[in-house]
Structures are given as structure tokens and as C-alpha cells.
Automatic annotation (TrEMBL):
Protein family: Belongs to the LysR transcriptional regulatory family.
Pfam families: LysR_substrate (PF03466)
Originating organism: Chromobacterium fluminis
Domain LysR substrate-binding: 8-70
InterPro entries recorded: LysR-type_TF_proteobact-type, LysR_subst-bd
Record-given protein name: LysR substrate-binding domain-containing protein
Superkingdom: Bacteria
Transmembrane segments: none
Length: 90
């Protein structure tokens, strides 16, 4: 098991298996074909876990709405601003 993203990237480039990696680490490798995207149609979900209550506190609701607006269906900031590699295609 790799300790950090760079070690995991090196292992992937050596053919050690598959992994879910952020594009800010492997974006150039994806763009050049050194690595291939898998399971693009199955994004990893993000879950918010909090104690069950009859009424969700306003702060929790506001936070969940904020996260949804910030992360919703938009690509991460490093992909929106980057021109170094293309966005992944379906």
C-alpha cells in the first residue's frame, strides 16, 4: 500500500494495479495515455453523516447546502482552471 499520492502514482505507472486518484496527481498521465481512466460513469459518492434527529439544526442544513453548491456536479477547481490536460471524456 502506498503512503502518499506520488508513491501510488509510481506504482500505477509500474503496472501494480488500479486506484482512484485525484486528477491533480495523475491528470498529465491520463492526458498522455500513460494511465487510462476506468469506471468513469460511476463517480464516488460523498456522504454526510450526522446523528439522527427529528429536526436537523440550521447550521447542519446550511453546511450541507454549501457543500452541495460547491461540489455538486462541478469538476474540482484544479480541473476547471487547468489548461494543462483535457477533462475526462465519457
Amino acid at each position: 500500500m502506498a503512503v502518499d499520492g506520488d508513491e501510488q502514482r509510481d506504482a500505477l505507472l509500474a503496472g501494480a494495479g488500479i486506484a482512484q486518484m485525484p486528477t491533480f496527481i495523475v491528470g498529465v498521465d491520463l492526458a498522455t495515455g500513460r494511465l487510462l481512466p476506468l469506471l468513469e460513469r460511476y463517480p464516488l459518492p460523498l456522504h454526510a453523516v450526522f446523528p439522527e434527529r427529528k429536526h436537523v439544526p440550521a447550521k447542519v442544513s446550511a453546511f450541507l447546502e454549501f457543500i452541495d453548491r460547491r461540489l455538486g456536479s462541478e469538476p474540482p477547481p484544479w480541473e476547471r482552471a487547468s489548461t494543462d490536460f483535457p477533462a475526462a471524456a465519457d
